[in-house]
Amino acid sequence: MDRIVIIGAGIGGVQAASSLADQYCVTLINGEDETPYYRMRIEELLGSAGPESIAIHPDDWYCGKGIRLIHGRAVRIEDHQVYMETGESIPFEKAVIATGAEPRILPLKGNRDDIIAIRRIDDVLVLKEKLEGGARSMTIIGGGLLGLEAAAAVREHFDVRMTVLETADFILPNQLDAKTSGYIQSLLAEKGIEIVTGARAEEASDDSVILSDGRAFPSDILCISAGVIPDISLASASGIKTGRGIIVDNHLSTSMPDVFAIGDAVELDGRTFGLAMHAREMGSYVASEIRGAGEGYKPSDVMTQLKVAGISLAVFGSKEGNRHEIAAGNGKAVIFEKGETITGIILVEAKQLLAKAKGAIGKSLESFLASVN
Ligand SMILES: Cc1cc2nc3c(=O)[nH]c(=O)nc-3n(C[C@H](O)[C@H](O)[C@H](O)COP(=O)(O)OP(=O)(O)OC[C@H]3O[C@@H](n4cnc5c(N)ncnc54)[C@H](O)[C@@H]3O)c2cc1C
């Protein structure tokens, strides 16, 4: 039976292992102490949930499936062997690198050494300890989806002054237009989250963050949420070609024969990924590739349905043309129209219109309005 070694037991690695276990002898290397878990649910641990509640599978599931789950860090791949930090080497016929990503850390003046970036269970536990220890203010640098989600998760459980600093002129510029973004900002304000836009953090002192324009915000806790960087360290140490991520072709093959890479760690056609849905689908795809049934991986379109701090958002098409807004239940639909056809729709707290909005791109505004009235 061919031996497969998967390095990294995040969502991608576990998906690949579970898809291959029936036919191959699979070793899954878990670089973290906990049973592999759903990374996107770690903020649930700010409440009463324990780490076991976010495990992808219970511990004994791996054994039951015949997957050898080992803890430790891989340091190098060479001659069909994975070398571990301990000196152990694990032979393979095929290997999959699923090492994920690391948070991007911004250079700030000052010598503050307790800045948090939320990526692992440990990060959330440190944050929780500070919150329970009486912290009264928290600042998050970065008003993207993860920063806003973290702000909302903390506010749900702790009564701290919460400030989110965003360098752009409005939050979620990739997803929203300025006006809709302003509306979301007002909904977040109702949840006790103050957003400061056009804010470039420059310095971090022990208890505050100072912007380039001199404004200061109290920050008993300082968190950075400025995106992620693919973890290419194992690939680079093994002489595998890397760019921003581990370079793969559309079969998810790396430059080293019989070694594939998946998930947040990879760069495919100049693009990197940072979503669980892509890690999971690459995990399934690489299994079909190893079985000899791969027909080329095509990433699914980015999901257009999001939940931002408990507010439901759905984004379809582009933001070109004239802007129209209609009330929809407790929320609203924002419609963009160019040359008599709809180019894009944003639904805020208006899930009931999802199916209709999906089919409306390229059709006339009148027909969409008639369908929703
Ligand atoms: C707070 C938070 C919320 C998120 N919310 C969402 C969301 O709502 N929707 C969404 O789609 N995505 C979300 N994401 C992103 C999503 O979690 C990632 O896209 C996904 O986890 C990537 O999976 P992966 O398997 O590629 O890597 P990871 O989950 O990062 O797993 C990689 C694993 O490999 C290990 N590793 C690295 N190097 C080595 C080595 N040398 N040896 C052994 N092990 C190693 C790492 O320690 C890690 O355990 C969120 C992320 C965070 C942090």
Describe what this molecule looks like in 3D.
- The structure is a single chain.
- With 373 residues, this protein is an alpha/beta fold.
- It has three domains: 3-102 and 228-290, FAD/NAD(P)-binding domain (3-Layer(bba) Sandwich), CATH 3.50.50; 121-224, 3-Layer(bba) Sandwich (FAD/NAD(P)-binding domain); 310-372, no CATH class.
- Helices cover 23% and strands 30% of the residues.
- The chain has nine helices and 25 strands.
- The protein has helices at 11-20, 59-64, 121-132, 145-157, 178-190, 233-237, 276-290, 354-358, 365-372; strands at residues 3-7, 25-30, 68-71, 74-78, 81-84, 89-91, 94-97, 101-103, 137-141, 161-165, 193-196, 201-204, 208-211, 216-218, 221-224, 228-230, 246-248, 259-261, 266-268, 271-272, 305-308, 311-317, 322-328, 331-338, 341-348.
- The strands form seven sheets. The chain has a five-stranded parallel β-sheet, covered by helices on one side.
- Strand 5 and strand 6 (89-91) form a beta hairpin.
- Helix 1 (11-20) packs parallel to helix 7 (276-290).
- It is globular, with a radius of gyration of 23 Å.
- The chain starts with a strand and ends with a helix.
- The relative contact order is 0.13.
- The mean pLDDT is 94.
- The structure holds flavin-adenine dinucleotide (FAD).
